[in-house]
Amino acid sequence: MSKQVPLTAEAIAELPHPDDGTIEIAPDLAYRRLAMVNVVFYGMPHCGDRNWVLIDTGVPGMTGRIISAAEERFGHGARPAAIILTHGHFDHLGCLEKLAEKWDAPVHAHPLETPYLNGRAAHPPPDPSVGGGLLPWLSPLFPTGHVNVADRLRLLPATGGVPGMPDWRWVHTPGHSPGHISLWREADATLIAGDAFITTNLESAFAVVAQAMEMHGPPQFLTLDWAAAGASVRTLAALGPRLVITGHGRAAQGPRMLAALRELGDRFEEIAIPAHGRYVDHPALAEDGTAYCENKPPPISTSVPLQGGSRIGNLGSDTTII
User: Fold this and answer.
1) How many domains does the chain have?
2) DSSP three-state, residue 172
3) Does residue 306 belong to any structural domain of this protein?
4) What is the pTM of this model?
5) Using only C-alpha atoms, what is the Rg of the chain?
6) 314 vs 283: which has the higher pLDDT
7) Given CA atoms 91, 135, 111, 39 in this order, what sign does their dihedral have?
8) CATH number, domain with residue 289
9) Which of 2, 21, 109, 216 gives 20 to 30 Å between its CA and that of 227?
10) Residue 132 has pLDDT above 70, yes or no
């Protein structure tokens, strides 16, 4: 079992839990937890049609709830200027096809993620052999199949700009997936991290439900290149974010959050990487750099005993939880 690093301090704020609905964390930034994953809304409230952006689209079956949350924040019938994907795993593009069609919205992603968005490739399967609890054990049931939004798919600008999001830039943060990106706004040190790191233990069903707060590496059972994942965490820690929103867990800000992120980067190999796993020893790398796999590799055995997950522990009560 991997080590944990406890972080404790005095409380400074009592902030809403994600179950309270859409949580605004800046005048132009809000997020909503749907099942086990967050979707993020960028844009000023009541800004109207084509003046806001959706980042990620949650798990399948949440289309109606995303539309309702968007209309509540931006106005009835308001459509986004763009949909930005941090990456193409099922829990971040579950409603993509339906939302892109309904809103006639362009979908922007990193070039290395496009094979999973244009019908060409399926992701490699999750790896339950990393252990850690119920979700890794159930992960072979997660969909890895094809999504096709080729007619609306656009590459993120090579300049680093983010369509529809002035003053933001995208940062390539691979490891969890080949074309994983995070979004960074330097002006106020705000980071949308996707699954490059997360603020809950996704290997624990209890932690996911309770939204227990801790700094954690990317989901172990869906991370395909651990060396790249560690480098990505260190890249984001070096930015010095003051406010973070991750794909799973609660948004957070404060010095203990940043200290925990930096410690995660410094001790990533010790803290975040599981003791064993298919992709620990054999990263899923593509020879041509276009996709991790064109066809699903052989099934992974689920007979490996489950073991505890790895994380940096409690973020500490001086971390503002949003």
Assistant:
1) 1
2) strand
3) yes
4) 0.84
5) 18
6) 283
7) positive
8) 3.60.15.10
9) 109
10) no
